[in-house]
Amino acid sequence: MKATAKAHTNIALIKYWGKRDEKLILPTNNSLSLTLDGFYTKTTVEFREDLTEDIFYLDHKLVTDEQYHRVTKFLDLIREYAQEKTLFAEVHSINEVPTAAGFASSASGFAALAAAAARALNLGLSDQELSKITRQGSGSACRSIYGGFVEWHKGMELDGSDSYAVPVSPQDHWDVRVAAVVLSAKMKKVSSREGMRRTVETSPFFSSWVDSIPSDLEDIKQGIKERDFEKVGQIAEANCLKMHATTLGANPPFTYWHDTTLAVMQTVQQLRENGIPAYFTIDAGPNVKVLYLPENEEKVQDILREIPGVTDVKLSRSGQGVTYI
Amino acid sequence: MKATAKAHTNIALIKYWGKRDEKLILPTNNSLSLTLDGFYTKTTVEFREDLTEDIFYLDHKLVTDEQYHRVTKFLDLIREYAQEKTLFAEVHSINEVPTAAGFASSASGFAALAAAAARALNLGLSDQELSKITRQGSGSACRSIYGGFVEWHKGMELDGSDSYAVPVSPQDHWDVRVAAVVLSAKMKKVSSREGMRRTVETSPFFSSWVDSIPSDLEDIKQGIKERDFEKVGQIAEANCLKMHATTLGANPPFTYWHDTTLAVMQTVQQLRENGIPAYFTIDAGPNVKVLYLPENEEKVQDILREIPGVTDVKLSRSGQGVTYI
């Protein structure tokens, strides 16, 4: 009843922005991501008959706060699925996702937790089933089950039974790289959960955002199929800008951007003006991720590091899905 | 056949963003502005029988480029109105609107030109007629005919006959101040004309922007009536953010913001967190205008001047409409 799984984080190129069901974590739109090899969580789950409650260690430290409750609540779903309502687990997670890099460690975290827990109980889940259960821990985590480009189908059913991720191009590997640009900016003021909710409820731009997704998705999948980096980059950048536009219309309005965020965006545009294909995307925080091709790694990295207010640039490439150790 | 008029620039609190007729300069939405005393254009127009074409001096220099053609084209409208198709003018303009401050000198410029030309020919125009003709030189200029808070009615007619500005609160003076924060940033890459056009044609957010205007206008006019500075400031800031959101959805997307633009926005929000009511608004360029009350002038000015990348802060207060000298 013990298993260890490793899952990588992912960066959305077509953003997940807005929930249609907060409890089941059902999104208002399909999203598409690239799994990254640089950042991961490794989690061991051991179910033990002698435990009367779950125990959770993160980076060797016992966790008892809200993070613990998210883990327990998620293990309840696994227990329900396994019909083992009184079987508790000891969980050990090692997070190789620096919070400062602006990646949600919840994506790799819940993917690794779900995979290890399901394997520990020998649930024999298909990847789709695993993705579906993972989604209920953290939405974007459902994409981290797979490597490479991944699409999360929002689904239509009220119970979420058709809301899970699938690989977009499972056969071939395409070496697209991502630089995570870390800013010295402080923590974000509006959580992504609160930001989504406020935007869905109050932004006049939200419905246009949702309406614009199907054509973005179709185009970017075409670009991935054709390995057309500029097409993929352009659509990703434009999609990110649309997502951030919706927050400016919320009531009260807000933005995740800081001054250095803008400086990085401008630098990426300058790179393109100088003939280097590079594109940015930004999640619900101030940090920027820059997509580029391997041959431009040195130039891209050097230029990004020179921007005042940038404290670190972490490089990553297309990574694999969940693995078991 | 000679007259001199002085007109001030204005800052839109409900933005003019989108044209329904490019030739007649008819907007897609009503807008509302505050006329500012700090920045103005003084223009003398003399119609002379001996001239065979218009002559235009700006700041004592003869102008022959595109600016000259905009002036001549505008004087054609005046000539048409006066039924004096072969009467040309010598025009002298002095611009006290530093381009670097990010104010469109075309607002005060065309208001002063229209007023001086109409007066020189003794056309006996009402303010509304003058505003309507001014509009055809530069849209936002039609608001500079009046002092204080001014609303530009977009109008419904195809010929623009009901598209002109009117004063919002003609009776009483309210001492609201504006700091124009000048950035070291380079010239903007997308003109406001091109930016509007691209947004109208391609942004999925444009129709929601237009739909959101009537309630913003109603609320801000209520705020002006009640002299509720925080209400006026909040609506102005939110309206500006919505306008800039529309550009992020355009194809290709663009923004007028620079890194220092964001830094100023954040500083204004910090001012509020420290109990000082201050609100920003941004036109189609990187510079920021900050609204504040007289009692906070020193604090606001000091804090804005300290922001790295800010080269100057120019203070202004509510100004008067067109005057004749």
Automatic annotation (TrEMBL), chains A, B:
<keyword id="KW-0456">Lyase</keyword>
<dbReference type="InterPro" id="IPR014721">
    <property type="entry name" value="Ribsml_uS5_D2-typ_fold_subgr"/>
</dbReference>
<dbReference type="InterPro" id="IPR041431">
    <property type="entry name" value="Mvd1_C"/>
</dbReference>
<dbReference type="InterPro" id="IPR036554">
    <property type="entry name" value="GHMP_kinase_C_sf"/>
</dbReference>
<keyword id="KW-0067">ATP-binding</keyword>
<dbReference type="GO" id="GO:0004163">
    <property type="term" value="F:diphosphomevalonate decarboxylase activity"/>
</dbReference>
<dbReference type="Pfam" id="PF22700">
    <property type="entry name" value="MVD-like_N"/>
</dbReference>
<dbReference type="InterPro" id="IPR005935">
    <property type="entry name" value="Mev_decarb"/>
</dbReference>
<feature type="domain" description="Mvd1 C-terminal">
    <location>
        <begin position="181"/>
        <end position="307"/>
    </location>
</feature>
<feature type="domain" description="Diphosphomevalonate decarboxylase-like N-terminal">
    <location>
        <begin position="7"/>
        <end position="165"/>
    </location>
</feature>
<protein>
    <recommendedName>
        <fullName>diphosphomevalonate decarboxylase</fullName>
        <ecNumber>4.1.1.33</ecNumber>
    </recommendedName>
</protein>
<dbReference type="InterPro" id="IPR029765">
    <property type="entry name" value="Mev_diP_decarb"/>
</dbReference>
<dbReference type="InterPro" id="IPR020568">
    <property type="entry name" value="Ribosomal_Su5_D2-typ_SF"/>
</dbReference>
<keyword id="KW-0443">Lipid metabolism</keyword>
<keyword id="KW-0444">Lipid biosynthesis</keyword>
<dbReference type="Pfam" id="PF18376">
    <property type="entry name" value="MDD_C"/>
</dbReference>
<dbReference type="InterPro" id="IPR053859">
    <property type="entry name" value="MVD-like_N"/>
</dbReference>
<keyword id="KW-0547">Nucleotide-binding</keyword>
<comment type="similarity">
    <text>Belongs to the diphosphomevalonate decarboxylase family.</text>
</comment>
